[in-house]
């Protein structure tokens, strides 16, 4: 019989953030790139917490349009509101298409300081952050930036096909 030597059950508060803004993007470009990435041999279709079609993890990391249209506005927000002197780098960036009956399982990006998602079309499939009592309704061009430690998920999609890109930053 095994005897438990120690048990700790506690709540530890940690700082968290969530920001949203609207971006003017080249939506057709990104949708086409995602559709191409789903055909890539390293796609992550149904292999992750994103229970749907997904490009390779680093699919958008070196994409100039992604950098100019999404990374720069993200870093402007973070540097003005969070860590004015900290440096960050993009770790990964991927695209998804979430169709009817598909979902994102509850998870976090704990090893990353900053996570985000940008929506390429309107869809009523909400993104939930229960820890901070927030629900996000995807809108075309909506950028959501949040603490990587925040748990988040979606319920199964009962609406229309959703196109989005997600990304993570780490401190350097």
Keywords, separated by commas or semicolons:
172 residues; alpha+beta; Jelly Rolls; 5-stranded antiparallel beta sheet; 2 helices; 17% helix; 33% strand; globular
Report on this model:
The longest helix is centred in the middle third of the chain and has 18 residues, at 64-81. This protein has helices spanning 27-37, 64-81; strands at residues 18-22, 50-51, 53-54, 88-98, 103-107, 114-119, 127-129, 134-136, 142-147, 152-154, 162-171. A hairpin with a 4-residue loop joins β7 and β8 (134-136). The strands form two sheets. The chain has a six-stranded antiparallel sheet with strand order 1-9-6-11-4-3, with helices on one face. The chain has a five-stranded antiparallel sheet with strand order 2-5-10-7-8, with no helix packed on it. The model has no long low-confidence stretch (mean pLDDT 93). It has one domain: q2cbj1_9rhob like domain (Jelly Rolls, Sandwich), CATH 2.60.120. With 172 residues, it is of the alpha+beta class. It is globular, with a radius of gyration of 17 Å. The chain starts with 17 loop residues before the first strand and ends with a strand.
């Amino acid at each position: 019989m095994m005897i438990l030597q120690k048990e700790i059950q506690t709540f530890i508060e940690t700082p968290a953030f969530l920001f949203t803004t609207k971006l003017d993007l080249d939506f057709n470009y990104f949708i086409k790139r995602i559709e191409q990435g789903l055909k890539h041999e390293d796609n992550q279709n149904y292999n992750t917490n994103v229970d749907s079609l997904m490009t390779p993890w680093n699919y958008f990391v070196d994409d100039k349009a992604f950098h100019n249209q999404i990374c720069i506005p993200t870093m402007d927000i973070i540097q003005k509101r969070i860590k004015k002197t900290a440096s960050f780098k993009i770790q990964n960036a991927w695209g998804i298409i979430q169709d009817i009956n598909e979902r994102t399982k509850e998870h976090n990006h704990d090893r990353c300081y900053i996570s985000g998602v940008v929506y390429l079309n309107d869809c009523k499939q909400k993104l939930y952050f229960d820890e901070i009592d927030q629900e996000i309704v995807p809108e075309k061009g909506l950028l959501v930036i949040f603490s990587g430690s925040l748990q988040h998920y979606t319920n199964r999609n009962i609406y229309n096909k959703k196109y989005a890109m997600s990304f993570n930053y780490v401190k350097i």
